[in-house]
Amino acid sequence: GKRGNFEVKSICVIQMQLTDEEEKEKWIMTINQKNLLEEWTSLKCSEIVFDSNVDDWNKDTSVLNEKIIGKKQLAFVIEDDDGEIFGYYCNHQIIEEYGWMNEQQTDKNSFHFNLQSKNNRLSKPMKFEIKDLKKGGIEFWEKSDDWLMRLGDIYLMKENYKNECCCKPNSFEYPKGKENILTGKIGEKNFFEVKRIIVIQMYEIEE
Question: Which side of the chain, N or C, has fewer Cβ within a 10 Å radius?
């Protein structure tokens, strides 16, 4: 009867809403962090097109390139071994060009972000606007290379060398004297170890 219908409706609603822990398991981010990324991009998180927990990102066998070439409006979200969550939003369409100096110029809608800092190093999540459209773009490499991808100021290595990823802050607007603000790593190359990378296809919100 009516009671049965009411119960079924309730179950449907519960299934649609992920808990904070389930959101974090799926997207790396909590509900609030995901909402913030959507607010910054004015887009919605649609699907995960690459997940390093599932997809191969090793030297010689990485599938990252084929998962992202031809796409645009992608959010690259990185979690490192310190629990920092940061990344890069790429607005422009990615074309098939490999190697050093094949920088794909981006546009002013691309940006870096830090959503979660170790021990609340940052008082709140931060977005960093781009200042150099060429150097702030992206590059990626062949399967046989040790390098995976450069996302603006973030240099990612293949899984075999995941502890040698680094950040060289120079193409985005960072607060003066706080050049390590994106990843929190201090030192000449700001090395960090990747725990997980996901690439999210963002999409326009229908009015």
Answer: C
Q: What is the DSSP string of 119-176?
A: GG-SSS-EEEEBS-TTTTSEEE--TTSSEEEEETTEEEE-GGGGGGBEE---SB---T
Please list the rounded mean pLDDT of every run of 10 residues in the chain (207 residues).
Answer: 50 63 93 96 97 98 96 97 96 86 85 94 95 90 94 96 93 88 80 97 85
**Burial of 182 by CB count in 10 Å (0-12 exposed, 13-18 middle, 19+ buried)?**
buried
CA distance 161 to 10: 47
Q: Which residues contact residue 32 at a Cβ distance below 8 angstroms, ignoring those fewer than 6 apart?
A: none
**How many whole angstroms separate alpha carbon 24 and alpha carbon 38?**
15
Sheet holding 154-157, edge to edge: 138-140, 147-151, 154-157, 166-167
Question: What is the pTM (predicted TM-score) of this model?
Answer: 0.89
**Which 8-state DSSP code applies to residue 86?**
E
Q: Which amino acid is at 96?
A: E
CA distances to 2, 12, 34, 77, 102 from 15, in Å = 20, 5, 19, 25, 45
